[in-house]
Write a structure and sequence with these properties.
Layout lengths: L1 H16 L9 H4 L2 H4 L5 H14 L9 H12 L13 H26 L9 H14 L12
Helix pairs in contact: 4-5
């Protein structure tokens, strides 16, 4: 029984020792990754991500400064889904386009109102009163109209 436990410990010890530490990534390979990340091909991006992932399994004291910066940028940088919706100056363009559209629509409405023909005769107050009297005389709309008993 004692021999079995020693054998298990030896296997366990050997399995953890057999793992070698991944090689250090060069500064030329991962340096200034923020500026060139979007231009890299997808395959190269994936290889960098995988190599950094294997390096980050080590203690963080063993990582170089460039590796830490690259890992931070890949995890939290402004790329992919974290890319900003608007670039610099886009918000002011949107504001001025919306403002110009509102002012233009108000000007168009005013111009059409000035150029429109006068109101039809059926919209006069006298016309409406005469049509109400006519409907009363004919007892139109018995449910909610003029012939309902008050």
């Amino acid at each position: 029984m004692f021999a079995r436990s020693l054998q298990r410990q030896a296997i366990r010890f050997n399995s953890t020792v057999a793992r070698s530490a991944p090689r250090t990534l060069s500064n030329a390979y991962i340096g200034k990754l923020e500026s060139r990340w979007t231009t890299l091909p997808k395959e190269e991006q994936q290889t960098i991500i995988e190599e950094l992932k294997s390096r980050m399994e080590l203690p963080w004291q063993d990582l170089s400064v460039a590796e830490k910066k690259a890992a931070y940028y890949i995890s939290f940088g402004e790329w992919g889904p974290r890319r900003p919706l608007y670039g610099p100056g886009d918000k002011s363009k949107i504001f001025w386009i919306v403002t110009g559209s509102v002012v233009g629509s108000i000007a168009l409405f005013g111009a059409l109102k000035l150029l429109a023909k006068p109101n039809p005769a059926s919209l006069n107050r006298e016309w409406q009163e005469k049509s109400d009297e006519y409907l009363k005389s004919k007892n139109a709309n018995p449910f909610s109209g003029y012939s309902q008993i008050q």
